[in-house]
Amino acid sequence: xxxxxxxxxxxxxxxxxxxxxxxxxxxxxxxxxxxxxxxxxxxxxxxxxxxxxxxxxxxxxxxxxxxxxxxxxxxxxxxxxxxxxxxxxxxxxxxxxxxxxxxxxxxxxxxxxxxxxxxxxxxxxxxxxxxxxxxxxxxxxxxxxxxxxxxxxxxxxxxxxxxxxxxxxxxxxxxxxxxxxxxxxxxxxxxxxxxxxxxxxxxxxxxxxxxxxxxxxxxxxxxxxxxxxxxxxxxxxxxxxxxxxxxxxxxxxxxxxxxxxxxxxxxxxxxxxxxxxxxxxxxxxxxxxxxxxxxxxxxxxxxxxxxxxxxxxxxxxxxxxxxxxxxxxxxxxxxxxxxxxxxxxxxxxxxxxxxxxxxxxxxxxxxxxxxxxxx
Amino acid sequence: xxxxxxxxxxxxxxxxxxxxxxxxxxxxxxxxxxxxxxxxxxxxxxxxxxxxxxxxxxxxxxxxxxxxxxxxxxxxxxxxxxxxxxxxxxxxxxxxxxxxxxxxxxxxxxxxxxxxxxxxxxxxxxxxxxxxxxxxxxxxxxxxxxxxxxxxxxxxxxxxxxxxxxxxxxxxxxxxxxxxxxxxxxxxxxxxxxxxxxxxxxxxxxxxxxxxxxxxxxxxxxxxxxxxxxxxxxxxxxxxxxxxxxxxxxxxxxxxxxxxxxxxxxxxxxxxxxxxxxxxxxxxxxxxxxxxxxxxxxxxxxxxxxxxxxxxxxxxxxxxxxxxxxxxxxxxxxxxxxxxxxxxxxxxxxxxxxxxxxxxxxxxxxxxxxxxxxxxxxxxxxxxxxxxxxxxxxxxxxxxxxxxxxxx
Lengths: 375, 408
Prior knowledge:
The structure holds 2 protein chains of 2 kinds.
Chain A: H1 6-22, H2 25-32, H3 40-49, H4 68-81, H5 87-101, H6 104-115, E1 121-124, E2 140-144, E3 147-158, E4 165-172, E5 175-182, E6 188-193, E7 202-214, H7 221-256, E8 258-259, E9 262-263, H8 268-301, H9 305-334, H10 345-357, H11 362-373
Parallel strand pairs in A: 1-4
Antiparallel strand pairs in A: 2-3, 3-7, 4-5, 5-7, 6-7, 8-9
Helix pairs in contact in A: 1-4, 4-7, 4-8, 5-6, 5-7, 7-8, 7-9, 7-10, 8-9, 9-10, 9-11
Chain B: H1 9-22, H2 30-39, H3 61-71, H4 83-96, H5 99-111, E1 116-119, E2 135-139, E3 142-150, E4 160-166, E5 177-183, E6 189-194, E7 200-201, E8 203-214, E9 218-219, H6 225-240, H7 252-262, H8 270-302, H9 313-332, E10 346-347, H10 359-365, H11 376-387
Parallel strand pairs in B: 1-4, 7-10
Antiparallel strand pairs in B: 2-3, 3-8, 4-5, 5-9, 6-8
């Protein structure tokens, strides 16, 4: 496996400092309580000044021209800081879908404005039937008088109620295709869902004869599998960042909290829990970094996607459980304090469970991995 | 030393070729060749001159192996039963042994004429090995040893045993130990096979009844035994930690995947099959992550920032191996009820590990994974205290005389 370079570590330090300045716990609590769900100024700063919205968009298309290994580092730091921002929806899923599924016109129309932070976007792929696999998509698009019309609903869409551009996956006679819907389109109903995880906005989108622009040429099932691999890998990196925060916080507390005259971390019951959490974090890193390095190679060379898809399933399944376990045990180690609204432990706990369920839980991805392996 | 010629890789290769002109593995027996290899300073080149080496870097040993293999179809590797003596005994003897003992024993160690064993663990001293109770009492020029050692690999084949014994019970436990080289054929030393849950005996118990050891065979000074033992154990880590990363899907997991593919999935309901398939996939993920984490550890080590990647592997490996073989026997289902190999008690030489077709044996053997070489509980203590920096438990045995420490 590759390892991160000095440049990666510099990027990490820069992003960490930026997030410490703009997304500390106090800021997260303000942003998550807002209607938008994030702070537009902070996002503009990250997108515009740091180029984080266009990390994987080629320079020719107006992007920063970085790779997915840089995106891995950024996602991990965002997960650690619990940043509220349309990063996963815009910079990962939408940029990925446009790069891997859209035709040249669509790329020209959208990539540079996304990269510049001028507009946010999201990918609405799963229907409301609870299925996260592409075969579960039932929504259709009909061509009528030279225009494409969408009919149906999409569930659990990231930042769906605020995104300027909605990329919708629907069935045509060709197969699964990608459509673009502007936020103000007639026949589009957007409804924010009260979310378990307050730091990530989810919406339900209803389409009733909604006009859409077809962005792809023919069936995109293969391309969408790759977009999901991107998504799972980035989310796994984000989960690693969250898990590391939980481990660090639990260990710090175990060193300073005194009961029966000594630090609770000196008791094996707590110490061994912490050691097990260290295992979770270290092996989650192995899983997530490997997945992201593989995706980085694929984006660069256009080859090796089967392997990247396989290891993205592995990473999403392992990192989901690892993050949840560290977040849950962090509460337990904090005792009563960890159960309060005041302490941030619950924010990570909710993020952990939500990101585990989002795009399919650990068992779902193990099943997908088993299918890849022919088990 | 400053006048000594600089031995670079080319010079070392030419010295190997010079050795091969005198004796050649294709035309001589094992002991003859290994003895000549030792006398030419090509046994372990990182040892000093006169003791089988040239004081070179340990990396250069690979050059010797490579040059011999380039010039000979026969290669005389270390004897399997000699790994403990060569890997752990030789460096300990070199560091702490008197000169005449080194001269006498190092060549015979390398030729495999003498097998060595390590006698640290005791029935009452497992994780807490420094609390050991085997006593050595001075009598003139000799020490009289009484007690029992356990988990002693190759003791039944050994000429020499590395023994840590208590020479002073009136000081704290680490301070009252001394390190001896014991003649395993001497009167009062009895070796018995220790049969384990597989029916095999990979290990022995060793009983000492008034066994006499000359004072001249003490390594290090009286009371220095713990320090000497640490040298031995550090070399154990070097010897164990040298295995390179394996290929994807190789090793134990390949056996589980094979069993899964051969399984009749109609033998249970679809729901039960799905549950088992999930467990098989979990084991696959764990095996892959162990492989990937080793790769990650070596990649970060190269960039000069060694992190905790390496130290977590032993714990994860032990626990995941147990889960893997539990899953394997459950995949076998009713077939798991039989044990074709039988439980005939027998003494094995070297490792009995055979990944092909011995799932039930491995199911039993893997219980030791989280006990041997540091229990999982001790590993969690080490990770918690040395990696995460958590405080230690209050200790009741640190500052008091060993004889006053409660023991089971």
